[in-house]
Amino acid sequence: MDCSRITLSIIIPCYNSSEYISECLLSVLPFIDENIEVIVINDGSTDNSLDIITDTVQQYPGKNIKVITQENAGLSASRNKGIHVAQGKYISLLDSDDFYHSDFWSEILPVLNDSTVDIIEFNAEQFEHETSNIVEHIDCAVFTRKNQICSINQLKPAFQRCKWYPWARVYKTSLFLDNNVEFPTGRLYEDMSTIPALYLNSKCIYGISKSLIWYRFHKKSITQTFRQKDLLDLVYVVCALAKMAQDKPDTLEILFPTVQRVFNFIKYTIIKNKNSKLPVKEQLKLRTALMTFIGEFRLSRKMQIIILPLYLSTIVRMRKK
User: Fold this and answer.
1) Residues 148-165: pLDDT tens digits?
2) Distance in angstroms (rounded) separating the CA atoms of residues 127 and 161
3) Do residue 72 and residue 125 come from a single domain?
4) What is the structure's pLDDT at 222?
C-alpha cells in the first residue's frame, strides 16, 4: 500500500474495554478506504478485548488496519505510540468506549483535502447506556468553518471555553511531531496541557458545529472517583502550563482560564475528599507555577496563592469539621 496516500490515521487505544470496543470499531472500519488507516493499541488488556479486536478486524480483510499489542503503559503512552507509527497527514484520537457519529465521515473527510488546516474541531454528545439518553451536549467547536490564525488573541474563545477533549478534534500529524508535543505518560488529565499546546502552534483551525462523536458517560470516571494521584497530576498540569507561558505575556493571558479552572478543581478535590492530601513539596511546586499567573487572578485568589500552604491547611482543617 502506498503510505504517501494515507490522509487520516485513526488511533484507538484499548485497555480492558471488551464491553465497548466492538461498537467503537464498527463505527470506523466500514467507512475506511485506501486513504485511511486504523491503528488499534491493545494496552496490555487482561480481559478478552484483544480477541474481540481480532475477530472484528478479520471481518474487514484488505483494509489498512494495524493492531499493536504492548504491555500496559496507560492511555497517554498508547496515544503517543499511535502518533509515532501513524503514516497519515492527519490524526484522530478515538477512545475505545466511544464511537463516531455516522456524519463524521461526510463532514471531516472533505476538510482534509485542504492541507493548510491544522486542527478540525467539532462537538460531542455525552450519553449514558443508550444514545437516546443524552447526559450533556459538549460544545468544543468555537470556530465556524475555516479560520486563519494570525494573532494569538484569535484563540481566546477556545481557551476561555476550556474543553480540551482530545477526541473532539482531528489534528495535522506535524503539529505533534514538529513541536515535540506528546501526551504526558502516566498522567491523568493529560489533555489539559497537551491540547492547549497544539492550539498555540496552529495556524489554521476549521470548526464544525455538529456533534460527530458519541462520548460515553461512566460513573467511575476520573472526574467521579477520587484518587490521590489526581492531585499530583493536576499540579503537573499547572506546572506544564506555567512552562508554556514563561516569558510570553500573550500566551500567559490566553492560558489563564485553564490554569484558573485547574486551581479551582484542586481546591474542590481537597474539600470534597476527606482523605485527600497534597504533600508540601507539591504545594510549593503549585505555588511557584501559579505565581506565573498571579497578575491575572483577582485579589482574593492572589492572597490564596501567596499563602498557599497555609490556605490549603486551613481548607483541610475546615473540611475535617
Assistant:
1) 999 999 999 999 999 999
2) 21
3) yes
4) 46
36: β partners:
8
Amino acid found at 248: K
The pair phi, psi for residue 131, each rounded to 5°, is -65, -15
Confidence at residue 220, expressed as pLDDT on a 0 to 100 scale? 56
Structural domain boundaries enclosing 290: 228-320
Question: Does the residue 91 lie in any domain?
Answer: yes
Residue 93 lies in a domain: yes
pLDDT, residue 103, reads 97
H-assigned helices in the chain: 21-26, 49-57, 75-85, 104-111, 156-161, 173-178, 191-200, 228-245, 249-272, 280-291, 299-306, 308-320
Domain endpoint, select from 193, 216, 239: 216
Distance CA 291, CA 98 (A): 38
CATH number of the structural domain spanning residue 147:
3.90.550.10
CA distances from 142 to 100, 169, 195 (A): 20, 12, 14
Same domain, 197 and 264: no
Query: CA geometry: angle at 185 spanning 281 and 9, to 5°?
Result: 155
In this predicted structure, the answer to whether residue 299 has a pLDDT above a threshold of 50 is yes
